[in-house]
Amino acid sequence: MDRLLLLLPTTTYRTEAFIDAARALGVDLVCASEKPNVFEAEAPEHLVTLDFTDPEGAAASVANFHKARPIQAVVGVDDTTAVVAAAIAERLGLEANPVAAASAARNKLEMRRRLHAAHVPAPRFRTISLEGDIDRAARDAEFPCVLKPLTLSASRGVIRADDPAQFVAAVRRIRALLARPDVSVAGDAARMLLAEEFVPGREVALEGLLMEGRLHTLALFDKPDPLDGPFFEETIYVTPSRLPADVQARIATVTAQACAALDLTQGPVHAELRVDERGPWVIEVAARSIGGLCSRTLRFGTGMTLEELILRHALRWPIASLQRERRPAGVMMIPIPRAGRLRAVHGQAQAEAVPGIDEVAVTAHLTQELVPLPEGWQYLGFIFARAESADAVERALRTAHAQLSFEIE
User: pLDDT tens digits for 234-290?
Assistant: First the structure.
């Protein structure tokens, strides 16, 4: 029986989906987290603890484990584990992205450098030192611009500035965020920010799978809500895209060029792009699959989940079809309207009764302290819909969301 190592941070939404997929495939599953599991002593052959901030150390630990219980595949489920997974795969001689490629996709500055060197359409950028003269940097900046940390994900710490005063305020706010105890950054990521040209236009997300360097588009999502700032909280994703076929083809081509520029060759890819009258612009390429619970919108072939598809590829097992089901689908990530403690949720039954709605999953728990963007990274929950058209999916999601109300103290 093939043995699979899953890297599962304690903060990820993806644990259940990947474990269910591994069980459905019948593999011998080993789960690794950055914190010890209470059952680790009773099941050392299935539960291990790894330091995800030390890829080489984690790879050495897994190599020792591998001597007694050989591992055939390793999968990191999110941004925090992509580099570790690459390091482990390299140490074990498994096919995977090069460590340098996974690191480049994780670091927004290195990503920008590689994209520009390869002439991939991407925003102009410059670095801002957190230890330098912020007022002078603000005077020299081009507006509007977007300030962002180098390594955080889920739009955390991403702020638009339209003038020098907003620029200075944004830098100070991001600097305070990076100093928070729940944020772990080091090196350049702790000393500098990225200031990017703001690219107007529609935003889309491409979900893909790289196989031997070739990008296969699994789904292209429209993001119908404008993402113009000052913060960039994502809400609705709908697939298939309603953009013209030639624009969709260009998006896929530019994404493939970006993957090549980063030297990504294997596994899932989640890319964010803006589209204006000049064409697609790469905002980000991540060497992992779509975040949160959003993968529930995707089914392939005769019902395969995205997680099963990813694991089959990692294990080098056959994949019957990469074709997404034909029925349009979508998800709404329920935004946190304000900071405070969640006291009650109302209207969930009414939201679930809206035609086209599959599920309303409230993932925030009662009494949880809620932190909105740009400091936070979580959502109140997720709404899932399927319908006969993308327009109907979007309407269902908006109607369902309107039924919900949250008491936040």
Answer: 999 999 999 999 999 999 999 999 999 999 999 999 999 999 999 999 999 999 999
Q: Is 159 exposed, middle or buried (0-12, 13-18, 19+ CB in 10 A)?
A: buried
Helix (H) or strand (E) holding 285: strand 279-286
Q: What is the CATH number of the domain that holds 364?
A: 3.30.470.20
The closest of 404, 258, 230, 246 to 332, measured between CA atoms, is 404
Number of domains in the chain: 3
In a domain, 145, yes or no: yes
| Beta-carbon count within 10 A of 85 CB | 32
Q: pTM for the complete prediction?
A: 0.95
Q: What is the C-alpha to C-alpha distance for residues 178 and 186, in angstroms, rounded to an integer? A: 10
Q: Does 96 share its domain with 148?
A: no
* Within-domain flag for 289: no
Same domain, 14 and 90: yes
Which element (helix H / strand E) includes 246? Answer: helix 245-262
Structural domain includes residue 84: yes
- Distance, in Å, from the CA atom of 83 to the CA atom of 48, rounded to the nearest integer, reads 18
pLDDT at 43: 65
Residues 33 and 79 in one domain: yes
Burial class (CB in 10 A: 0-12, 13-18, 19+), 5: buried
Domain around 362? 328-409
Compute the Cα dihedral for 21, 24, 30, 33 and give only its sign: positive
Residue 143 lies in a domain: yes
Strands 202-211, 267-276: pairing is antiparallel
Name the residue among 217, 235, 358, 368 with its Cα closest to residue 300.
217
